[in-house]
Please model this.
Amino acid sequence: MGNGARRDNDTRGTTTMAAPSCVSTDAVARHAVARDWGGQVRVVPDYVARPRTEAEAQEAVTWAAEHDLPWVPRGQGHSCGGRAQSAGMVVDLSGLDTVHDIGPDFVTVGAGITWSQLLDVAAEHGLAPPVITDHPHLSVGGTLSLGGVGGTSYRHGAQADSVVRMLVLTPEGRVVRCGPRLRSELFTSVLGGSGTAGLILRATLRLVPAPGLVRRIRLTVDGARALVEAQRNLLGDEKPDHMQGQVRVVDGDWRHRLDLAEFVDATAGPSWVSGGRPLPAELASHAGEVERTRHTHREFVHRGAEDEARLREAGHWDAPHPWAAVFLPDAHAEEAVEDILGGLAPRLLGEAGLVLVYPLRSIMLRAGRPALPQGAVVWLCALLRSAPPGDAVAAREMEADNDRVHRIAEAVGGTRYRIGAR
Ligand SMILES: Cc1cc2nc3c(=O)[nH]c(=O)nc-3n(C[C@H](O)[C@H](O)[C@H](O)COP(=O)(O)OP(=O)(O)OC[C@H]3O[C@@H](n4cnc5c(N)ncnc54)[C@H](O)[C@@H]3O)c2cc1C
Model:
């Protein structure tokens, strides 16, 4: 596995490397997986495996292991830094998208299914995953192998925390079951392991009742410190179900905004989120413009769709994304977020860029490598940079600025979240 250079005596396409039927040397297939969301690493693999079944995946991986061929799993290719790329073989798991079983509080799926596909199936049963990332079209295997966090993660942990058990293909090609109490070492190292410890074939995930209605409130606040303080105040009794701090450049100025939501049923009475009650005092003291909306859960999960369409049209969706993402200890969250944002020139985020700042808890990420910082609550600070289309110089400057972000985080005991560029 991994991205190591392929062996020197590679004999791609010759009879000595006669490949299983799901493995292809087709140029179009190989070039289709040569790039990722980050857009800064380009590696054309010698082979692409497109298994439709778990047996085919095992066949491909066993064959690669026998031929000492490096390989890497790939879901939707939405990570940065070439994590789903290899010069040897890329195993494209999008064909493993079966829903094997669904019960009153769990679902068992193939790891190539996307969260949005899973969500639609779960919704038919009145259920939903407890955590969904901001972009729901990522694969289950892809987010579990990095962690997968969202606005509900301060209540429910990472997506990796919702895994009950998994079926894993080891680097040698063995299929193994694992869970928190069954081969727990393998379980822990695969979750958050960036695809290096094993390939997730199938995962059983905890589900919760799907909310009937999402009431959302977005408030502007005056600066980075207020963005952290307001969210910390909400960690007490007034917790909303979803909480995210967001920073953007709007007309050349920084805009800090809280995006909060409560998950209720249609008969729920008024609250400060819906507007029938006053804002909690600690929040009111920070709040500027306030906007309230109501959504179905599906609309809320797909809330980024309009932005996506706009970014695609303007060429930003396919532009380089030199992302930096760090976890910060609660004790130093304000100062580190202020330092990170204070030294950030608007052009180093990009007009389509976004910074996320929000608190979370996670057991699985705590056990990961690198582990979360100390403390029950940690803060995500993610600079989702977007270079102007075609501007390679800007992309390199953004990448260089990532070093600054990493240094600030490390100085206060923070760690990196691997969704960022390396
Ligand atoms: C627009 C956008 C929004 C995002 N929002 C969030 C967010 O809100 N929260 C968050 O946490 N992340 C977010 N991310 C980051 C995203 O969660 C990760 O990049 C995730 O890995 C992408 O999933 P993927 O299916 O594209 O994985 P890929 O990019 O294909 O793979 C990512 C890593 O997982 C490994 N992998 C893939 N499938 C498997 C498998 N079955 N078994 C083992 N390893 C595997 C790969 O080898 C690679 O190392 C976002 C990304 C984008 C592009």
Observations:
- The two ends are 18 Å apart (CA to CA).
- The mean pLDDT is 93.
- Residues 36-37, 72-79, 83-84, 93, 111, 133-135, 138-139, 141-143, 145-150, 194-195, 199-200, 419 surround flavin-adenine dinucleotide (CB under 6 Å).
- The chain is about 25% helix and 25% strand.
